[in-house]
Design brief:
single chain; 2 helices; elongated
Length: 73
């Protein structure tokens, strides 16, 4: 069970770091979700937001980080 605890602590630290980044630099991240390719439909009674480009970029970044993590650790 000790490796599981280690992974839970690592995930918790990552969440705290991301939370602090959003908290302190949130006003600098206003482009996030407003990239070309992010679909936003606003009608009278319906609002739909599908951030396709943002999620592709985030997926590529996370994949790169995971690849680097596995390569060096």
């Amino acid at each position: 069970m000790q490796p599981i605890g280690k992974y839970i602590v690592i995930v918790g630290v990552i969440l705290v770091v991301v939370g602090l980044l959003v908290w302190f630099a949130g006003d600098k991240l206003n482009w996030f979700g407003n990239l070309p390719g992010d679909v936003r439909v606003e009608k009278k009674n319906v609002k739909i937001f599908a951030p396709f480009t943002t999620m592709l970029l985030l997926s590529a970044l996370l994949s790169l980080l995971m690849w680097l993590f596995r390569k060096f650790f």
